[in-house]
DNA sequence: CTGAAAGCGCTAACAC
DNA sequence: GTGTTAGCGCTTTCAG
């Protein structure tokens, strides 16, 4: 900026004003300065500007990962949520700082805020440490999380209606005459737990009670699907349907079942969760519960901005929809 | 920091030194200050620190998208590359600023650097505007791109060996006795063009010349696979194999062909490209060309750091590998 | 319409 | 071992 000032024969104040299109500065001077800036590929140093203005147009997007299992950022659902968030945030002129934290230390997600790097944090996924998030909220970190709404929650969540989602999925399978419905999913995660609740509700509505033998607490590991299918085989339990807590898990499980010679959906009908893009191209095309990613992303951003504004933002539960395809 | 200084009864200099674990400051004072900082959830304001230190630990990761088609950030390959980059950059202590630019204005990728937000830029995908990238390089923007190496290139690329990849894929199909091999891909993209070259080379080695009727310049649109398959049908061309320039495209195409009653691989053998995670779970499991994402991510980061250091970084071409599965 | 000066939060000589 | 001071790049009163 000093360079430009010198070249234009004005002070840095004038350059600053010109660059911010202040009407105070002479039209001609302004044009000269803007031209100069353009030709030098000059851009305002945002760090310094932020410092001076005490403002910030950066939002941190944080993804909790299972450190223990060294899981890669790989579930297409999370990734596409990131894409939708990128859209929503860019549209509002925010920069996006992406980071990952250990799912067992989600409170580390506050770092970009504490360090003044971001005005707030969006967490894609809630992990199992509700208490850590509550503490973060208590000490005033503005953040919202994509996840389930829990009792005594001090923070704002945006999430799908997991109970209904689980119920819809299970009802679909029941409607097809299936009675031995396996459930794959780690119920220590609140979202999965709620989907499981929907599953139990649907069973109950048909006078059935869940068979614990049919529940495999498969985690989000690379090999999870295969392992879960193998586990059922080891237990020697019969099943004619599967409700998997994510599409990725459903696809891996279908692959494993196919290797056991099972036909999908004839032998085992399958419903997944998330409606990732590839679900419709999978074979058989996957029946699944759709979560509205774009709406969710906008809701997350809106809620965060409300929080940053010092107001309180209510949690949002978005409707889920059963997408019926060939797998069930 | 001033608050802590006051509470600790010292000057901000001492606080600054204590926080950076300087041995200059008295052990006892230091512990008192660190405790205080912890209890206040204080973290250094990195913006201010960067300003003062004239340093920066942020790298911009930029993804070119086809604005015209409003394409979402959806190809799992790009997303998982982002994941690998996040790993590689975090490991080196860098923050990641993610943004998307219009593929027709890739030079906008320089913005985070120009604005002092990032020390350099990693572009995931090269787009079709080689010239814009060359100009960016010429004016000293430190950046590396995941993409193809081109003649007269002033910038650094890291990419797979696309020609070999294309050759391997095509050879596999030829080895299975296929002779009418369709190629789906937008050859205006350098990487795809090179894969096409490998395809042509492999054909030539078998005394075949490429039939232009078999080439569909399908873009990376959501519906691309279906459209490409429909286009072949419209042209009335017979084919017994398909080489798709991405796994996503391959999967969509397989889905479309299956709807036409074709059996994969009996009627049409298919090879994809990228080896995304779901390829092995697809039905049939996809034969594809693997690109080493983790190695690539590390190479991209390493090259960028060399550039930031003011040295010049050679382009890197990583080996590709044919992963044989059931689809071909 | 423009410039001088102060200060955002931080660090590093330099002094003591 | 600690404090004083200046300054990173920017904006904005306040004076002209």
UniProtKB/TrEMBL annotation, chains A, B:
HTH lacI-type domain span: 1-53
Organism of origin: Telluria mixta
Gene3D superfamilies from the UniProt entry: 3.40.50.2300, lambda repressor-like DNA-binding domains (1.10.260.40)
Record has Transcription as a keyword: yes
Highest taxon of the lineage: Bacteria
GO molecular function, one term: DNA binding
Record keyword DNA repair present: no
SMART domains, sorted: HTH_LACI
InterPro entries: HTH_LacI, LacI/GalR-like_sensor, Lambda_DNA-bd_dom_sf, Peripla_BP_I
This protein's UniProt keywords: DNA-binding, Transcription, Transcription regulation
Protein name: LacI family DNA-binding transcriptional regulator
